[in-house]
Amino acid sequence: MRHYLTTPIYYVNARPHLGHAYTTIINDILTRFHKLAGYETYFLTGTDEHGDKIVQAAAQANVSPKEYADQISALFRAAWPPLSVETDDFIRTTEPRHQNVVTRFLDLVNSKGDVYFGEYGGHYCFGCERFYTEKELVDGLCPDHQTKPDFVSEKNYFFRLSAYQDWLIDYIEKRPDFIRPEGYRSEVLGFLREPLEDLCLTRPKSRLTWGITVPFDSNFVTYVWFDALINYVSALGWPDGELFAKFWPAAQHTIAKDILKPHAIFWPIMLKAAGLPIYRHLNVHGYWRIGQSKMSKSVGNVVEALSMADKYGSDPFRYFLAREMSFGLDSDFSEDRLVDRYNADLANDLGNLCQRATAMLVKFSGGRIPWRLADAADVEWRKRLERTRSTYESAFLSFNPKGALIAVWELVGYLNKSVDLEAPWALAKDPLKKDHLDAVLARLAEGLAYIGALIWPVLPKTATEIWRRLGLNPNRFSLDFAAIFSQLPHDRPLIADAPLFPRIEVAKGQDSGPKSESAPKSQDLKKPTKPAEEPSAVSQAQKVAPAAASSLSQIALSDFQKIQLVVGEILTAEAISGSEKLLKMTVSLGEAQTRTICAGVAKFYRPQDLVGRRVVVLANLAPAKLMGIVSQGMLLAASQDGQLALLAPDSPLPAGAKIS
Ligand code: ME8
Description:
Layout: E1 2-6, E2 10-11, H1 18-36, E3 40-48, H2 52-61, H3 65-79, E4 89-92, H4 96-111, E5 115-125, E6 130-132, E7 150-159, H5 165-174, E8 179-180, H6 182-191, E9 199-200, E10 202-204, E11 213-214, E12 217-222, H7 224-229, H8 231-234, H9 242-247, E13 251-256, H10 260-273, E14 281-285, E15 288-290, E16 293-294, H11 301-306, H12 308-312, H13 314-324, E17 331-333, H14 335-365, H15 377-397, H16 401-422, H17 424-427, H18 434-455, H19 460-470, H20 481-487, E18 505-506, E19 525-526, H21 537-544, H22 548-551, H23 557-561, E20 565-575, E21 583-588, E22 595-599, H24 607-610, E23 614-618, E24 624-626, E25 629-631, E26 634-635, E27 637-640, E28 643-646, E29 658-659
Parallel strand pairs: 1-3, 1-13, 2-3, 3-4, 8-14, 13-14, 15-17
Antiparallel strand pairs: 5-6, 5-7, 7-9, 10-12, 11-12, 15-16, 18-19, 20-21, 20-23, 20-29, 21-22, 23-26, 24-25, 27-28
The chain binds ligand ME8.
C-alpha cells in the first residue's frame, strides 16, 4: 500500500506560524509512521500565491506580487527543515508546471459542459475572496473578518457544483472515513442539506490580473480556490505523470476546519467533473488557540509560538503539538504547558528510562547487552509489545497521533516500573540470580530499542540518539520488534551518555505574577546548559522508588474509601486581596450547588487560566475558614522542588465523576 499526504498550500500573505507548523508537522509524523510501517510515501506542501489577498499584501510591502510571493514562499520553504520536516516536493502555484495543469483542467470541465457564463451580484469579502449570501452575513458583516463586504456585480464564468450535489451526498454517506473525524463529516452532510450554489469560477481582469488566465476567455483569471486545489494533482504531474499514477489513488489531505468547505465540497466535485478518482481521506483538525482566542495571523504571538521550537528544540516542540491536541478538537498553546509536558513526559518518563537502562547495563553488565535464554516472562513481554504495536498502529491509521503516543508512553511507564519491581541492583548481589539479571537487563535494552523506533515519527532526533547509544543502525527503524531485537549488538559496549532531556527548572524566587503566554520569557526559565551529573543507577532507581515508601504506615482499603475524591470543574477563579498564595474558586462537583474552594496555587496559576479546568477535589473535607472565606473542599496537587501541578483526569470526564 502507498500513502500520499498533503498539507494545504499556504497563502503567501503572512509568515509561517504555529498553525501552519502544526499541519505540516502532523503530516511529517504520519509520513514517517507510514515509512516505519514499510509503506511507500509521498509528502507534498507548498504555497498558494494568486488572488486579491496577495496583491493587497504586496502593495502594502511596496513590491510586485511576484516579488512578494517569491520572498514569502522562500520563508515557508525554509521553515520546515529545522522542524525535521522532510517533504518530497514543494509546489508553488506560480510555477508553469502548475499553471499548465490548471489550464488543462479548466478546458476539460468546460468541454464536459460544466461551465457557463452568467451574471452575479453579491456581497464580496476581499479577505475571504468569496461572495457571501445575505443569509451568511452577520449584521451585514463578513462572519470571519467582521468587515462590510463590497457589493460586486459582474459577469463571470460559473462551475456547476449544484449538478453534483446528490452524487456527493451519496459518496460521503457510503464512506464513513472519507472525512474524519466524524464531527466534520456530519458538518459537511448538514451543509449539503441546503441547495448548493454554483461556484463563481473566474474574476474579470478589469478587477484582478494576478491569476491564471482561463483558456476559454482571456479577459478572465481563475478563481484562486479553483487554482489552488488543483495543486494536489499538478504536483504529481497529472494527467500522465508517473507519480500521479502511483500516488494519486493513495491521496489523503490534511487541513484545519477553516477550509473544510473547499476541500470537502468543491474539490471532490471538481475531480468528479474532470473524471479523476476522488481522494481517499480528508483529515480535519481544530484550531490552536493562544490565550483563549482564535489564533489570527494579524497577531504576532502565532509567529512567536513557532519560536518555541528554537527555544526548546524541534523534537520537544513536535512532541508537544502531537501529544497535546486531540485531532479534530481545538487546543490551547502556551509555553507553560509545553514546559510541563517536557518535564513530565520527556525528562521524567522517557529521559529517565534511557538514563537508567543504559546506566544499569554499564554497571551490571559491563555495558554489553547480555545474551539470555528465553524465560517464562518472555511470553508476557511479547504479548505486551504486540499490544503496544497494535494500539499504536491503529491510532495512527485512524489519524490519531495522540493515541499512538499514549500507547508508547504506557510502555515507557511499564518499563520504568519494572525496573523498580525487578531491582537489578539487588539481583546483582546474588550470583545465583545472574540469569534472571541478564534477562531483565536484556529486556530493558529491547524495550528501549523498540521505544526508539516507535517515537521516530514524532521525535526523530531522539530516536536516532537512543539507537546510537544502543549501537543500532538508525536506517533500520521498523515496527517489527523481533527484527529489531535480532540486531541488538552483544559484543560491544553501549553508550551511556548525558540525559536526553535535562529538566527545565522554573527559576526560584522569581516574581510569579501573571505571565504573558505569548511572549517567551527566557528569564523565567532556566535550561541547564550542562546536563546534570549522571547519577548512579542505584541512586537513580531509588529516586523513583523511594525507600521511605516502605517505612510509611500502611492503611486499609476501607481507610482510603473514607476519602471522597471527585472530578471538579472550575467555573470562576479570582485572587484574594491580602493573600499572595490563595485563589478563591467556584467549583462544580456535579451537585445542585457549586462550592467555594480556596487553594494555595496563586504563585503557580493565573486565575483566568484555571477557568474551565477539570481538577481532582477532596469533597468530604470538613469546611475551613481561610482569609475569612469558608472553603468547602480541597484541590489535589503534586509538588516538588518549588513546582506545583494540579491533578486532573486524563480526559475531560464530567464534574462529579468519582475517583477511586
Ligand atoms: O487557507 N490552528 O491558506 P492559509 C491550526 N491557501 N492550524 C491552523 C491555524 C490554527 N489556528 N491557522 C492556520 C489557505 N492553520 C489556502 C489553502 S489549499 C488548496 C489552499 C493551518 O495560509 C491549517 O492547516 O490560510 C489551515 O487549514 C491552514 O493553516 C490555512 O492556511
